[in-house]
């Protein structure tokens, strides 16, 4: 059994899998300096908001987050916070991105979110997120 996290007024064991596409599906990642900025911003967000980033998987045009957060935060508030802070910091540290993303938006408005159960399911998602951006090793989440 995984560790139960505690906040001021509750104990929880919630994991989310988010997938967030870049606006216009532009291939902005795949460059170490962009990926490094994104990962360092995630660390700061985690410290500030007490979100637990367990895994960040970066593909060229979208990002997967496997994370946990206290139940006082709704899934949409969590991702809204993450996307807005990452966008602001990416534009601040890499002003050239504004030329590639006309309109001033970094992310699409939509996102994917799913809760992830403990045990096998969570481990499968963790491996899937870890292998993002590595086409040879990349797993398929769903077979259609």
Description of the structure:
- This protein has 144 residues and is α+β, with helices and mostly antiparallel strands.
- It has a single domain (10-130), classed as Transposase IS200-like (Alpha-Beta Plaits, 2-Layer Sandwich).
- It is built from 4 helices and 6 strands.
- It has helices spanning 32-49, 75-93, 97-100, 120-130; strands spanning 5-6, 11-12, 16-21, 52-58, 62-68, 112-115.
- The strands form 2 sheets. Strands 4-5-3-6 form a 4-stranded antiparallel sheet, sandwiched between helices. A two-stranded antiparallel sheet has the order 1-2.
- Helix 1 crosses helix 2 (75-93).
- The chain is globular.
Label this structure with key terms:
144 residues; Alpha-Beta Plaits; 4-stranded antiparallel beta sheet; two-stranded antiparallel sheet; 4 helices; 6 strands; 36% helix
SSE blueprint:
Layout: E1 5-6, E2 11-12, E3 16-21, H1 32-49, E4 52-58, E5 62-68, H2 75-93, H3 97-100, E6 112-115, H4 120-130
Antiparallel strand pairs: 1-2, 3-5, 3-6, 4-5
Task: Report on the biggest sheet.
Answer: 4 strands, antiparallel
Q: Determine the structural class based on helices, strands and strand pairing.
A: alpha+beta
User: How many β strands by DSSP?
Assistant: 6
The CATH superfamily title: Transposase IS200-like
Indicate how many domains the architecture comprises.
1
Q: Which stretches of 5+ consecutive residues score pLDDT under 50?
A: none
Strand order of the largest sheet: 4-5-3-6
Q: SSE order in H/E notation? A: EEEHEEHHEH
Strand content: 15-25%
Shape, principal axes of CA atoms = globular
CATH topology: Alpha-Beta Plaits
Helical run tally? 4
CATH architecture designation? 2-Layer Sandwich
The percentage helix is 25-40%
CATH class: Alpha Beta
What is the averaged pLDDT score?
88
State Rg: 15 Å
